[in-house]
Design goal:
Blueprint: E1 7-9, E2 20-22, E3 27-33, H1 39-50, E4 54-56, H2 57-67, H3 70-81, H4 87-98, E5 106-110, H5 116-127, E6 135-140, H6 143-150, E7 153-156, E8 163-165, E9 184-185, H7 192-215, E10 219-223, H8 228-240
Parallel strand pairs: 3-5, 3-6, 4-5, 6-10
Antiparallel strand pairs: 1-2, 7-8, 7-9
Helix pairs in contact: 1-8, 2-3, 4-5
Bound molecules: BIS(adenosine)-5'-pentaphosphate (AP5).
Residues 33, 35-41, 56-58, 61, 78-79, 82-85, 90, 111-112, 114, 118, 149-150, 153, 163-165, 168-169, 189, 198, 224, 226-228, 231 line the site of BIS(adenosine)-5'-pentaphosphate (AP5).
Length: 244
């Protein structure tokens, strides 16, 4: 993979004839797809391999809820019910996160944008730093398979980005996180009624955003039916061919 977008040779006869301009764009990747399609699982792996942070708006909200911050208290009912948090609250939290030092060379966005206003907000934030989206990964998975994967999902109680599946990705010790030894739990919104609501919001609000990115030629489809390792391999192959 390369870190540069190429070079613009100087025009002959100018005093900058020998200068080569290299435009560096950040590795900004968006992971989109139905609930349970593996976005968080792959984001954690690729974040480690690429050395860029995994920014999940769901994890950020759950962390606020765990720490009982004012924002956490405000959004807990919304998350538990499977509704979307209002755009302004989500976008402000996102802008603060991607403004941090570790996100300046790039980041993986998992779960944002989910609405057209959020997509506009992201464009705005990136324009403000002379940056742009490098690629959008769309996780292709039939709805029945995605929903079936959610019930056996378990996450770490101290960091919900540590994701397990009782059958396909079990922890080494029963119900204990491999990373930090904390107990595992089921997410509060992984209940049938909240799952239905989340999928409904996804179809209504997020699919149009994916279609907009398709029109711009940014979308790479990932076959999310494959094993977790094969999905990672497919994504790394795609990234290898990108020019950012
Ligand atoms: P969020 O946390 O983003 O949840 P989500 O979009 O519903 O997505 P999931 O986390 O359910 O699925 P995933 O694709 O990450 O799957 P995973 O890797 O875990 O959002 C939660 C809530 O926060 C929202 O409902 C909303 O209220 C709020 N929110 C967040 N962002 C917002 C925004 N932008 N605007 C407004 N509100 C927002 O995998 C699923 C399971 O399958 C796991 O058990 C995993 O181990 C397993 N698995 C993964 N890959 C495979 C594979 N290849 N084969 C077999 N099993 C696999």
């Amino acid at each position: 993979m390369v870190g540069a977008h190429g070079s613009a040779p100087a025009s002959p006869g100018t005093n900058i004839r020998n200068t080569i301009w290299t435009v560096i764009l950040s590795q900004i990747f968006l992971f989109m797809g139905i609930q349970g399609s593996g976005k968080g699982t792959q984001a954690a792996r690729l974040s480690e391999k690429l050395g860029i942070p995994h920014v999940s708006t769901g994890d950020l909200f759950r962390d606020h809820i765990r720490r009982q911050t004012p924002l956490g208290k405000e959004v807990k009912r919304i998350l538990d019910s499977g509704e979307l948090v209002p755009d302004d609250l989500t976008s402000q939290m996102l802008r603060e996160r991607i403004g941090q030092e570790d996100a300046q060379k790039g980041f993986i966005l998992d779960g944002y944008p989910r609405t057209r206003p959020q997509a506009h907000h992201l464009e705005d934030a990136l324009r403000g730093r002379n940056d742009a989206i490098c690629a959008v990964f769309f996780f292709d998975l039939p709805e029945e398979e995605a929903v079936a994967r959610i019930e056996p999902r378990r996450v770490c109680t101290t960091n919900t980005a540590h994701i397990y599946h009782l059958k396909f990705n079990p922890p080494r010790s029963d119900m204990v996180c491999d990373h930090d030894g904390a107990p595992l739990m089921q997410r509060d919104d992984d209940k049938p009624e909240a799952i239905r609501k989340r999928v409904g919001e996804y179809i209504q609000q997020t699919i149009p955003v994916v279609e907009d990115y398709e029109e711009r030629g940014l979308v790479h489809h990932v076959d999310a039916m494959q094993s977790i390792d094969d999905v990672t391999r497919q994504m790394l192959d795609i990234i290898e061919g990108l020019s950012c």
